[in-house]
Amino acid sequence: MREYLKDARICLGLSQNQVAQKLGISANYYSCIENGERQNDMKTSLLLDLSGILKIPISQMLENEKKYRRR
Questions:
Q1: Beta carbons of 54 and 21 less than 8 angstroms apart
Q2: What is the model's pLDDT at position 13?
Q3: Nearest alpha-carbon partner for 3 in 45, 71, 43
Q4: What is the pLDDT of residue 66?
Q5: pLDDT at 51 over 90
Q6: By the 8 A CB rule, do 53 and 16 touch?
Q7: 1: exposed, middle or buried (Cβ count in 10 Å: 0-12, 13-18, 19+)
Q8: CB atoms within 10 A of CB 54
Q9: Is pTM beyond 0.85 here?
Q10: Rounded to an integer, what distance in angstroms lies between the CA atom of residue 25 and that of residue 48?
Q11: Mean predicted lDDT score pLDDT of the chain
């Protein structure tokens, strides 16, 4: 999910802290998600919430992740 999560967050004018607060998680945990370190253990509910906050369809989030893994 990496860079495009950061790009989407910035386009919405949100900080990592603000997104983390909306998700009900720590800023550190959100930073790890955005950096690609914690995506494998994300709960579906968290993925749904993140999709809604950043206004990115889940299918797009997952497709972008596949592209990063192929590199």
A1: no
A2: 98
A3: 71
A4: 55
A5: yes
A6: no
A7: buried
A8: 20
A9: no
A10: 14
A11: 85
